[in-house]
Amino acid sequence: MGFNTALSGIKASADFLSTTGNNIANSDTTGFKKSRVEFGDLYNTNVIGAGSSNTIGSGVAVNNIAQEFSAGNISYTDNNLDLAIDGTGFFVLDVGGTQAYTRAGDFKLNEEGYLVTNDGAYVQGYNAVNGIIGGALEDLQVPTERIAPEASTAVELEFNLDSRLDDVPPFIEASFDPGDPDTYTFTQTANTSPAPPATPQAVTLYYAKSDAPNTYQVYATVDGEQNDPTTGLPYLSETYVVFDDADGSFSTTTASGQTPFAPIYVGDGTNVTLGDPAAVTGITVAGLTFDFDGAQPEIATPDNFARPTFDPADPKSYTYSNTNTIYDALGEEHTIGYYFIKQGENNTWEMKVTVDGEINNPVPQPVIDPLTGLQAIDPVTGLPQTQIVPYLPEDTVVRFDNEGNLIGAYTGYEPYTVPSPTQLSITGWDPTDSNAVLEIDLGDSTQYALSSSDTFRQDGYAAGELQGVSFDEDGLLIASYTNQQTAVLGQIALANFDNVDGLTPAGDTAWVASSDSGAANIGRPNTGTFGSIQGGALEESNVDLTEELVALIEAQRNYQANSKTLETENTVTQTIINLR
User: Fold this and answer.
1) For range 90-119, the mean pLDDT
2) What keywords tag this UniProt record (predicted)?
3) Residue 176 in domain
4) Residue 249 predicted with pLDDT over 80
């Protein structure tokens, strides 16, 4: 009996030693779960009978080699295809038609783009079609096809225009003083031509930029005096002159096509009537009339002081601008420019749009007959009339309230026209589709006392090649392309079991289900009881080397002690044999 007891102890200690050695050997194996030996004592019940209190044990047996499925540390790597499960669950594998499960996420792509393990098992998941994730479990694949281009159809332009910026020329708020050049913008002087013996008088007009677009308040002096000595009143009552700027901002008037900054209105500012420059009401001071009929003296124009004609290449012709990229149907890049010109002091900014540096739509637009509202017909050719127009209609403005919030986009200036709300859009910019419309949304743009800036977003992109793939915490397989686009290609699957201790080891750090574990419950990461996915990381072995080295000493001690039992039993037996 003693021999059998000692031998069972030696065998159990050897199994303990082997299990500990296997743990130590796999201390660096990704996803490895350590094992422990579970012992049970043996009793010989054949002679004395079961339940006897005098029963002598017959040794020890290994009842079970159990694996501990506690989580290992997560170690981050530089490989986007390395995956770790933060929480419960197993990756699902297809090994030659058999479903296996692992915590080792050191995956690779094979030559066909399938996600596989180092030994070629296929990783299971849910593939996506056009970004829609399917519901069938299958081999997870990374398509390597290039992504097709998408034409831009909408732009979201959200900006802040600095309320502190001045109109050009700047509004003069100070009270007029003919001796202070800071109280007016420019002047002109002409002499009267009285009949002898009266002497000529010098009449000077002072133009001070007002708070309205292209509008100047006019003051006058005669021989340096602002008031008529006879009446004691100013030589010139409250008078304003409005100019049609070089861009044709008031092109709906007959001033269109005239010289830059032709005057279109002279009055007291209360009754705005736009007129032909040749019919502009004159400014009469001391019998001398300044008008715009071709004869001197004419109303002076602000050519040397006002903002120059809008030119995308001339920063002096606008207040703020920026450019960004949009894409046509073939994925070719085009540069869209947006420009804002402050108009007066009443929270109004004119807006211009260019594409590839051009302000005009290359596609001819119909000329509308104002009487019929239909396309005009050329009386000579009998053909419908067309014209080249800017991408945005003339006088397109954005307006803000007194708190700096955007009111909307309009066509027309107050008080020269009645502004009408408009939805901003441009056509003709896409050479592959002349009818393509690009909608422009100004979002929650503002006019605050902050430096001008903008945020630009658009929905188009060029064609792109696959650049890389990665996984997010929900296990979504996300592809990135050379055109800065991303696409969801699929989602990895996870499995869990009612009894993970019942899983059967299958080698290569994988397990298969058994009757003890129950069937696999398969689902998606970060849902229910399933853990989340850590991309670019691996789960280390849960082996504690210090603990295993102590166990190694313990196994060695047990082996030696059981060997001593065997040696002692042998000595006693030899003593009996030697009796005479």
Assistant:
1) 95
2) Bacterial flagellum, Cell projection, Cilium, Flagellum
3) no
4) no
Give the three-state DSSP class for 446: strand
How many domains, the chain?
4
Report the number of secondary-structure helices (H) and strands (E) in the chain.
2, 39
Binning pLDDT at 50, 70 and 90, where does residue 259 land? low
Q: What does the block give as tokens for 410?
A: 């309009």
What are the C-alpha distances in Å from 263 to residues 168, 216, 217, 303?
Answer: 17, 11, 13, 12
The CATH number of residue 345's host domain is 2.60.98.20
411 within 8 A of 395, measured Cβ to Cβ? yes
β 202-209/239-244 pair status: unpaired
- Using CA atoms, how far apart are residues 139 and 94, in angstroms rounded to an integer? 8
**Same domain membership, residue 449 and residue 316:** yes
| Residue 296: inside a domain | no
State how far the Cα of 498 lies from the Cα of 502, in Å rounded to an integer: 9
Model pTM above 0.85: no
- Cα distances from 187 to residues 66, 206, 217, 321, in angstroms, run 101, 5, 12, 32
7 phi and psi angles, rounded to 5 deg? -65, -40
Question: Which tens digit of pLDDT belongs to each residue from 277-297?
Answer: 777 889 999 999 999 888 899
CA–CA distances in Å: residue 122 to residues 105, 107, 116, 170, 524:
12, 9, 5, 72, 17
Residues 6+ apart with CB under 8 A from 235: 220, 221, 222, 225, 226, 227, 228, 285, 286
Domain membership flag for residue 570? yes
Q: Are residues 339 and 246 in the same domain?
A: no
**228, two tokens:** 């008529």
One domain for residues 454 and 369: yes
What whole-number distance in Å separates Cα of residue 325 and Cα of residue 335?
Answer: 5
What lies within 8 Å, CB to CB, of 321 at 6+ separation is 312, 315, 337, 338, 339, 340
To 5 degrees, how large is the angle CA 122–CA 481–CA 131?
Answer: 60
In 44-97, where do the E strands start and end?
Answer: 57-67, 74-76, 83-86, 90-95
Region class of 297: left (phi > 0), else alpha (psi between -120 and 50), else beta: beta
Residue 305 has pLDDT above 60, yes or no: yes
Pairing mode, strands 239-244 and 262-267: antiparallel
Q: Select from 149, 128, 124, 82 the least CA-distant residue to 488.
A: 128
- 17 lies in which domain range? 1-70+543-578
Residue 450 sits in the same domain as residue 512: no
Check whether residue 247 and residue 342 sit in a common domain: no
Whole-number pLDDT of residue 3: 78
- Asked if residue 319 and residue 433 are part of one domain, the reply reads yes
Q: State pLDDT tens for residues 383-439.
A: 999 899 999 998 899 999 999 999 999 998 877 778 899 999 999 999 999 999 999
Question: Which tens digit of pLDDT belongs to each residue from 495-516?
Answer: 999 999 999 999 999 999 999 9
Residues 338 and 402 in one domain: yes
